[in-house]
């Protein structure tokens, strides 16, 4: 019986995460992309789903056309933005390549642009975000049979 309660709690927690994520995606997708482009290097909410890092990192944010990334992790975000722009938000390969890119940037030993949000904080946060995106992509790409 205890096992069933634990499963129910996990399902409820997963459902809550899904609702929060979808709400933030829906809100961000309704924004005008030109209005949310960035010309400055941001470092906000570095250890949460609401992360903004550099010019290109964060749900609903991207750099303005012609803007150079702030560092290697931000460059990975720029590449990811371009990938999902071309292939769609549900393209798992875009998300997997992004995870590989940011992990490589972290392992390079380079220091990011922000002392407030070091790679040791932002990379795990972004990996978790991409793991959620992959999960949602798999749900949306699968055909549900009743």
UniProtKB/TrEMBL annotation:
GO terms for molecular function: metal ion binding; phospholipase A2 activity. It is an enzyme of class 3 (hydrolase). It catalyses: a 1,2-diacyl-sn-glycero-3-phosphocholine + H2O = a 1-acyl-sn-glycero-3-phosphocholine + a fatty acid + H(+). GO terms for biological process: arachidonate secretion; lipid catabolic process; phospholipid metabolic process. It comes from the Eukaryota. Its cofactor is Ca(2+). GO terms for cellular component: endomembrane system; extracellular region. Its EC number is 3.1.1.4. Keywords: Calcium, Disulfide bond, Hydrolase, Lipid degradation, Lipid metabolism, Metal-binding, Secreted, Signal. The keyword Kinase does not apply. The keyword Lipid metabolism applies. InterPro entries: PLA2_histidine (IPR033113), PLipase_A2_dom_sf (IPR036444). Its main location: secreted. It is found in: Secreted. Residues 1-28 form the signal peptide. Belongs to the phospholipase A2 family. This is phospholipase A2. It comes from Rubus argutus. The lineage of its organism: Eukaryota, Viridiplantae, Streptophyta, Embryophyta, Tracheophyta.
